[in-house]
Amino acid sequence: MKILIIKLGLSETLDPEIGHVISLGDVLRTTPILHALKELYPSGRITWVADERARALLDNNPMIDRLLIWDSFIGFQLLAEKFDIVINLEKIAGLCALSNMINAWKKYGFRFDETLGSYQ
After folding, report:
1. What is the pLDDT of residue 26?
2. Fewest CB within a 10 Å sphere: which of 10, 46, 72, 84?
3. In CATH, which of 3.40.50.2000, 3.40.50.2300, 3.90.1180.10, 1.10.10.10 is domain 2-119?
4. What is the dihedral angle through the alpha carbons of 13, 36, 101, 113, rounded to the nearest 10 degrees?
5. Would you state the pLDDT for residue 9?
6. Could you report the per-residue pLDDT of 11-64, keeping only the tens digit for each?
């Protein structure tokens, strides 16, 4: 069972000078999902996609089998893989669109609605 969690820590706050503000607390608050997933899927292999600034929070977590740090190539890597479950916890339109395109049997969380042009 391959499980992908997308939680970079991007907040909905935009700073005009730096773009999206990283919320490390947001990343930390989502980590309890790991316990539930490991309980439901004990042999599941969890991949977490995070921003570089969230690495210290997730790096040594024994419940995360693979930590991917977001860069301009990770999307291509994810599109080349097959997952059983994708959980997108980011509301950013581009990440929602990526989540839609990833090959997975089940998808949870935010997705991009092409007709509305926004996430849901």
Report:
1. 87
2. 72
3. 3.40.50.2000
4. -50
5. 85
6. 665 555 656 667 888 899 999 999 999 999 999 999 999 999 999 999 999 999
Q: What is the pLDDT of residue 24?
A: 85
Euclidean distance between CA atoms 49 and 105, whole angstroms: 18
In whole angstroms, give the CA distance from residue 112 to residue 46: 23
Q: Is 59 helix (H, G, I), strand (E, B) or coil?
A: coil
What stretches of the chain show up as alpha helix (H) in DSSP? 24-30, 32-40, 55-58, 74-79, 93-101
Which amino acid, residue 105? W
- Would you list the domain boundaries of the chain? 2-119
Q: Which two tokens stand for residue 101?
A: 């395109």
- The values of phi and psi at residue 92, to 5°, are -65, 130
Burial degree of 42 (CB within 10 A; 0-12, 13-18, 19+): exposed
Q: What percent of the chain has pLDDT over 90?
A: 71
